[in-house]
Write a structure and sequence with these properties.
about 80 residues; alpha+beta; Alpha-Beta Plaits; two-stranded antiparallel ribbon; 2 helices; 5 strands
Length: about 80
């Protein structure tokens, strides 16, 4: 079984931080406003693991991202 994750496309992200506000248990923001994972491996910053209770919030973050930098993936 694959685990759900939130994928961040760094070529599109401009650091507005809306996703970090919506998924505040999974993401924080760095000094420039870009999302930073609060969990997972250091090298896995593009795919942020999600818990089952965060899936609706992740879908909202994907839908509300103004630059379409987010997507839900299974890893």
């Amino acid at each position: 079984m694959t685990a759900p994750a939130l994928h961040i496309d760094w070529t599109r992200c401009d650091g507005r931080g809306l996703c970090a506000e919506i998924l505040d248990r999974a993401l924080t923001r760095d000094d420039w406003g870009y999302p930073v994972s609060l969990r997972g491996a250091e090298g896995g910053r593009s795919d942020v693991p999600l818990s089952p209770d965060e899936l609706d919030a992740a879908d909202a973050a994907v839908a509300l991202c103004p630059v379409l930098a987010l997507s839900r993936v299974a890893r």
